[in-house]
Design goal:
Keywords: Signal. This is Carboxypeptidase-like regulatory domain-containing protein. InterPro entries: Carb-bd-like_fold. The chain has four helices and eight strands. By secondary structure, the protein is an alpha/beta fold. It folds into two domains: 75 residues, Immunoglobulin-like, CATH 2.60.40.10; 40 residues, no CATH class. Strands 1, 4, 7 and 8 form a four-stranded mixed beta sheet that branches. Strands 3-2-5-6 form a four-stranded antiparallel beta sheet. A hairpin with a 2-residue loop joins strand 2 and strand 3. The N and C termini lie far apart (79 Å).
């Protein structure tokens, strides 16, 4: 009897824990930087449409790496186990994509290059936000 209770407790501890879920939210902008309403977004099997102010939200997304698609744009998002992950999306024309990436690649490769460029830009903005604020007099000498 004691062995079966011990074995049951051990198995309960070893059972896989389900990944927590967070939310993915953000704003969709057009190439001019204006909020884009009525844009269909897809994350896995979930679909939503951006609101009048360009905002969108996916609730209860499993933690991990995902892709949000808005038309031909695809952006990567890393979802935390809890809370909200913000990911704004800028809809670029093919011409703008070429200007951003510097290459005229097939659409499937172009999306990957653009996603990498957007990830690098996000990382740079995060680093800049973490820097201490400085007054111009401190910088100029």
């Amino acid at each position: 009897m004691r062995q079966s209770v011990f074995l049951a407790a051990l198995l309960a501890l070893c059972a896989p824990v389900a990944a927590q879920a967070g939310d993915v939210a953000g704003t969709v902008y057009d190439a001019r930087g204006q909020a884009a309403a009525g844009v269909e977004l897809v994350l896995g099997n979930a679909r939503t449409v951006s609101g009048a102010d360009g905002s969108y939200r996916f609730a209860d997304v499993a933690a991990g790496e995902h892709t949000v698609s808005a038309g031909s744009q695809r952006v990567g998002v890393s979802v935390a186990e809890t809370g909200e992950t913000r990911r704004n999306i800028i809809l670029l024309s093919r011409t703008a994509r070429i200007a951003v990436t510097g290459e005229a690649l097939p659409a499937t490769q172009n999306d990957a290059v653009l996603a990498d460029a957007m990830r690098m830009a996000d990382a740079l903005l995060a680093e800049a936000a973490a820097l201490p604020a400085r007054r111009w007099n401190d910088i100029g000498g």
